[in-house]
Each structure stands twice: as C-alpha cells, then as structure tokens.
Write a structure and sequence with these properties.
The structure holds two protein chains of two kinds.
Chain A (H helix, E strand, L loop, with lengths): L5 H10 L5 H4 L3 H21 L29 H9 L5 E6 L5 E4 H6 L3 E8 L5 E8 L2 H8 L7 E10 L2 E8 H4 L5 E3 L1 E2 L2 E2 L9 E3 L12 E7 L12 H6 L8
Parallel strand pairs in A: 1-11
Antiparallel strand pairs in A: 1-2, 3-4, 4-8, 5-6, 5-11, 7-10, 8-9
Helix pairs in contact in A: 1-3
Chain B lengths: L5 H25 L4 E2 L13 E2 L15 H28 L2 H6 L8 H9 L15 H25 L8 H6 L3 H40 L14
Antiparallel strand pairs in B: 1-2
Helix pairs in contact in B: 1-2, 1-7, 2-5, 5-7
Classes of the chains: A alpha+beta, B mainly alpha.
Chain lengths: 249, 230
C-alpha cells in the first residue's frame, strides 16, 4: 500500500457529501484517497479469500450463448488479417524482461504445454457478464520455465491491438500471475479463440474485471516497476482513462 | 437526556453523505450498461428484464460520464458506508436503541393503526405506549437498517469478482452475479424512496427542530409535540 499523505486522506474524507464532488474528484488529495480505497479493497479481498482462492467454475450448460466482443474487436493491419486467415502459423508469444531464459513460443508450442480448461464468468467493468470455457497453459508454469528473477514484481501483457490510438497493454502482480486460473487462453468453448475475443491468444485473470484480460497477446514481460511503462499506471485503461489498476471490485 | 444519542447523530449524517455519494456515483456506473438481467450472465439487451434510463448529469457523480471516476467515488463511499453501518449496529445494540425504539410488537403491524397514523397530524402525533417512534417509523427504520442497507453491502460485495472466492455461496444465494446487480439497483431505489418519504415527513413534522435535534441531540420532552417526538 502506498504511503498516503494524511492531509490528503482527511481532505478527501471531509469532502464526501459536499456539493463540489466533481471538482474535488480531480484533486491530488482525492486521488490519494481513491488509490487508498482501491488498495484497501484489494487487501480486504486477499485477506478474506486465500491468495490462491478460485473464482467459481461452472457446468457446460451454464455457459452463455456468446462472449461479447468489447474494446478492440480486431487488430487493424494486414499482417494480422493474413495470420488470422492462415490460423496464426507465424504468431509468436515472447516471455521476456526479468527472466533468466527468455522464451519465444508458437501457438503449437503453447498447445503442447500442460493445459488448463475452465468454465468461468467474464465480468465487464460496464456491468455485463458472460460465461464460457477457456483453455490454455497456466501463466505460472510459463514463468517458471522462463525462470523469473527475484526482482520481478509485476507481469506486463503486451498486445497487438491499438485502441483509440494507443497500444493496449495490461499488468498484474505476482499473486494474480501465479494464480492457478490465470491462463493464456487460445480456445473459447473448444474452438480457436474468435477474432473479437482476442485471437489467437488472450489472458484470463479470473478474479478481475474484463479490461485486465489482455487480448491479441504478443509478449509477457516481467518487470520490477510499472512506472517506466506507458504512462506509468499499469495499463491502457489506467493510463488513458484513470481506471483502477486493481480491477477486483 | 438527549433524544438522539451521539452515535446515532454521527451515523445519521455520515451515512447521509455516504449514501448521496454512493447513489449518485452508482447512477453514473449504471449509465455504462443500462440493462439489468437475472441469473449469472447477461450482456445482450434483448435478454434484459429492465432497460434503465440514462441518468442525467445533474444526478450523477461526476456530472459528465466518467466510469472510472464514478467507480472511484463508489469504492471510497462503500468503505465509509460499510464501516459506519457496522458501527451503528454495534452502537444501537449496546445502547439498546434498537431493542427499545425500533423492535416492533404485534400492535405495530395493524393496517388500521397505520391508517390512523397517516390520517393524523404529524405535529401532534401520539405513539403506542409512549414509544419514541410510531409504528410506521419503527417499521421503516427497521427495514432500512436491517434489510435495505445490509442488502446494498452484500449485493455490492457479490458483484466484485475479487471478493467472490471468499464467499461464492453469497453469489449463489442471491441467484448469480447479474441477479445481485439487479437487486443492488432495486434496493438502491428503495432507499431513495425512503429518503423522499423521510424528507417529506421531516418537513411535515417541523423541519427546523427535527434537523437541529439530529445535530445537537435535542432533549427528551415530557410533552408530546411532534411526529418524531416521544
């Protein structure tokens, strides 16, 4: 939990219920309180459930007819369209950054790893939910193969899609990276991942909202600090629109 | 003796502020996907049981659409609201406000008696057996404190995917995540309806004195004077 200036905390709390909330929401003090509240929620969730506590898994008949495509629903360039048409023979996933052995894996190589299949619920920050079966290797196993270095604190997911003019990326801490349900999905309901859902690869971060589940995945980077990346807030939505980095609420 | 305990007054105003922030930021969040569903999943407006209006800027927080900012306000408001409600429940069990003033007896549940209360002058109203609140007040306060406000906490937790592994049964008994979201919305409007009735009754019963008493604590008077008096 970051060091919260006490003055900021009090100023923010005192402002609750005043008529100037919208203005106040833009001040640094309010930002500090909002960040603190987000950290308290994360700490509470992880205290109440075990750190490796599982998101519910459903029966095949509980699945929704579809999983809505949201945000980017394609990657708008010729290389992607060509690879999509051919079944992604040349797509590579890099595992890089603070690892002893960087990896570069094809879709076939990812499919050859031990797989996890899970029927889980996808909750969008907007409020809607869908249920589907996702399959792929666990991120934790991949990080172990690459031998993540002790100084790594976060895992960054790099994506091929450009949303509103910016490259999409996301990040999680090592608790979520090593969570058993955190997988690199290449299948949705037993078929190759559809274009709108992030073909050929997307992350599943089952205890957080949909914007953390990076689509069109090209690289997984272990880093010590998120500050030097993008605008420093840990993801596309965090950088561009001030979304909460912890999306478990 | 004070008519309202310090704990009651503190909670009343903190809760009022927290609910204002939660309700208005919640309406901003509602604008992100204006359809409500039953069950665990729901994303297609064709499957919705309710299409919600787009709430205008004067009633949302912030006043322009900003899902991230609405969620920031909602997430901090939830802490204030939840901790304050827990404090109030402990306080009113310890100081016996709950048992003495809010718990009803069978006489309180007579529709004829409710009709009598509604027809009488709020400023000259009498209560049963010299109780602090009349039957409709007891029932309204009891339902808000014991049912609606706790429902907001539990359905709010149930909507949070990060909380779900701690108590998956909670989401199940609520009928699934989208049901929890629908109940969260319904209960929020039930609380808003209480708020309107509460304000109307405060004005009918003598707003200046009632608001002042909820700030200073007031005094227990032997002479019955007003709707909210013992």
């Amino acid at each position: 939990m970051p060091d919260i200036p006490r003055r900021g905390l009090l100023a923010g709390l005192a402002a609750l219920g005043t008529g100037a909330c919208s203005e106040l929401g833009n001040t640094d003090a309010a930002g500090a309180v909002f960040d603190a509240a987000e950290d308290w929620h994360r700490a509470a969730h992880r205290t109440l459930a075990s750190r490796q506590g599982l998101a519910p898994e459903y029966a095949p008949e509980d699945r929704s007819p579809d999983v809505k495509g949201n945000g980017s629903v394609t990657v708008d360039n010729d290389i992607y369209r060509d690879q999509l048409a051919k079944g992604f023979p040349d797509w590579r996933l890099s595992v890089c950054g603070l690892v002893e052995t960087p990896l570069r894996l094809s879709i076939e190589e990812l499919k050859a790893l031990p797989q996890r299949t899970q029927i889980t619920r996808h909750d969008c920050v907007e409020g809607w939910s869908a249920i589907a079966e996702w399959s792929g290797p666990q991120l934790g196993a991949l990080l172990d193969t690459a031998k993540i270095k002790p100084e790594a604190n976060f895992i960054v997911f790099w994506c091929a899609d450009i949303l509103y003019g910016e490259q999409y990326y996301e990040s999680v801490d090592l608790v979520d990276a090593y969570h058993p349900q955190t997988i690199i999905a290449h299948e949705l309901n037993g078929a190759p991942l559809p274009e709108k859902n992030g073909a050929p690869l997307r992350m599943r971060i089952e205890r957080q909202l949909g914007y953390k589940h990076a689509k069109y995945l090209t690289a997984i980077e272990a880093v010590a600090d998120l500050a030097p990346i993008g605008k420093g807030k840990g993801g596309f939505w965090e950088d561009e629109y001030d979304y909460q980095w912890y999306a478990g609420i | 003796m004070k008519r309202h305990a310090l704990s009651t007054r503190l909670w009343h105003w903190i809760n009022a502020a927290a609910l204002a922030v939660l309700f208005m930021s919640g309406l901003g969040i509602s604008n992100a996907h204006r359809h409500l569903y039953w069950g665990n999943f729901g994303y297609d407006p064709a499957d919705a049981w309710l299409h919600v209006v787009r709430f205008p800027g004067w009633i949302t927080l912030p006043s322009t659409y900003n899902l991230a900012a609405s969620r920031d306000w909602h997430n901090i408001g939830a802490w204030v609201f939840g901790i304050a409600l827990l404090f109030m429940w402990i306080a009113m069990l310890v100081n016996r406000h709950y048992v003495r003033d809010i718990v009803t007896c069978t006489h309180d549940w007579s529709p004829r008696h409710w009709w009598h209360i509604l027809r009488s002058n709020p400023r000259e109203h009498e209560t049963l057996d010299g109780a602090k609140y009349n039957s409709l007040q007891k029932i309204a306060y009891g339902v808000v404190l014991g049912v609606l406000l706790p429902i907001m906490i539990f359905t709010g937790l149930a909507i949070s995917p990060g909380f779900e592994p701690a108590a998956p049964w909670l989401i199940e008994i609520l009928g699934g995540r989208q049901s929890a979201r629908s109940i969260h919305f319904i209960a929020a409007w039930a609380i808003a309806a209480f708020f309107v009735a509460h304000i109307v009754m405060v004005f009918a019963g003598g707003a200046w004195k009632l608001v002042r008493d909820m700030i200073t604590g007031g005094r227990v008077e032997t002479k019955k004077k007003g709707y909210f008096d013992a």
